[in-house]
Amino acid sequence: MDLRQLRYFIAxxxxxxxxxAAEKLHIAQPPLSRQIQLLExxxxxxxxSRASRPLRLTDAGKLFLEQALQILGRVEQMK
Length: 79
Prior knowledge:
The chain is mostly helical and 79 residues long.
């Protein structure tokens, strides 16, 4: 897990859409989706329910979002 993956996850969580999140991040959608998939595999949990439109965070995803925001906030404070 790295900070880039946290930023990607936060973007998807906020946009509730992979395509819009990719546009905001200025990257292509397939690599974004792959990074979220790798993150989920590393954590061993599904963070995003892809079956619904707009996308929804799972309970684990909601908790992970809170933690990711705190981590990135702390990183910004350190800078």
